[in-house]
Amino acid sequence: HTHFLSLSLQAKMSRPVQARRLEGIDKNIWVEFVKLATTYSRVNLGQGFPDFPPPDFLKEAFVRALSGENHMVHQYTRAFGHPPLVKILAQFFGKLLGRDIDPLTNVMVTVGAYQALFCCFQAFVDEGDEVIIIEPFFDCYEAMVKMAGGKPVYVPLRPKAPEGGKLMSSADWLLDPAELASKFSKKTKVIVLNSPNNPLGKVFSQGDLELIAGLCVQHDVLCISDEVYEWLVYDGKEHVRIASLRGMWDRTVTIGSAGKTFSATGWKVGWTVGPNHLLQHVRTVHQNSVYHCATAAQDAVAQGFQREFELHGKPDSYFVQLPKEMQQKRDWLVQSLDAVGMKPVIPEGTYFLVADISEFKSDVPDVPDSHEPYDSRFAKWMVKNKGLAAIPLSTFYCEAHKSKYNHFIRFCFAKEEATLKAANDILQKWKQEKTNP
Ligand code: PMP
């Protein structure tokens, strides 16, 4: 008995188990905020997913795929993408980008855009390479760059107060051309672009993209272009694809997501589009990590894209209808927030907006020496005390910049009218309590 005990003591591991590549990226705010939202929220406008169903034609396509005669949809399909899906994606993006796209070499399917991002960083970023990230940014970019051994270099969008007391727009958050140019060096390997941008909803203008493209060409830098919100653009604005600009096809991998495109984030179907000399390396990462993606979901997404290809630009197209509905939802939330003094920054795209919480500081007093940014404590207080979940904007900044951008929270408005009304009720009641304590 004693012998066994001493053996098991010896057997206890004493060496460090964590791989070096995980240093500094082991904390993730989503785990914490998703848990808080499930525990406390009555209305969850935190994490980005619709609470309305995907379109019927898409659900029916999934059912058809599963119940049809082709039982091979239950088996592995082509590792780099189910043939019908890469075929229609090639046709669709060929039309959008105005070039011939080969389904077998210029398109690769992934487990959501998230895996596409991971494959790209692993494929292109070496130890010590610098990767330029525009702030605020979808937070996983930072961790993925670090995991690949790269060094993130941050350049913040600079907010400019609008004239005449108007509400701010995401278009008022600007890239400073000189500042951006100063971040490019011999060490720069990649710039990450995310337009329309999560969390601000900024849709980068043709001018912004030409500036970025010019610097990429000048410094021989790659572009990972995360365009998962490509269909969610409002007020007649146009989404410009950076891969369509001069000199950029050869150095850009464009990433998309059926989750965002068809309001079905749980399906986790994403893709990359780009030149073969880049995608061949993305395929190498994919084949040595995930290799196959769920066949039936790809089949249904292929059918969805086939429908959209035929209806492209027509009023019945989901890609025309969805942004119309979402713009209405945006406007409802903008009104609700504006009415209580939580000033929204009107987004030009995506299904997010950020709102200024400065006028609510008396409800959640600052703690001067806290390591936690103010907006983070505010968001936690809000979900616990008001039942309304949102995400602090500082989440989307690097450590050094968090304290500068700590008075906004991000809301997701991809929600049923009833959900947005319930959020409005919470805000109204809160406002009343503030005015008549
Ligand atoms: N990029 C951005 C900017 C996102 O907001 C998201 C989802 N929140 C993703 C990528 C990941 O997309 P998917 O769900 O298809 O993996």
TrEMBL record:
Cofactors required: pyridoxal 5'-phosphate
EC number(s) on file: 2.6.1.64, 2.6.1.7, 4.4.1.13
Residues in Aminotransferase class I/classII large domain copies: 43-423
Any one of the GO CC terms: cytosol
InterPro entries per the UniProt record, alphabetical: Aminotransferase_I/II_large, Kynurenine-oxoglutarate_AT, PyrdxlP-dep_Trfase, PyrdxlP-dep_Trfase_major, PyrdxlP-dep_Trfase_small
Annotated compartments: Cytoplasm, Cytosol
Keyword annotations of the record: Aminotransferase, Cytoplasm, Lyase, Pyridoxal phosphate, Transferase
Pathway: Amino-acid degradation; L-kynurenine degradation; kynurenate from L-kynurenine: step 1/2
Catalytic activity: 3-phenylpyruvate + L-glutamine = 2-oxoglutaramate + L-phenylalanine; an S-substituted L-cysteine + H2O = a thiol + pyruvate + NH4(+); L-kynurenine + 2-oxoglutarate = kynurenate + L-glutamate + H2O
Keyword Cytoplasm: yes
Keyword check for Transferase: yes
Gene Ontology terms describing biological process: kynurenine metabolic process
Complexes and interactors: Homodimer.
Family recorded in the similarity comment: Belongs to the class-I pyridoxal-phosphate-dependent aminotransferase family.
Annotated protein name in UniProt: Kynurenine--oxoglutarate transaminase 1
Species of origin: Urocolius indicus
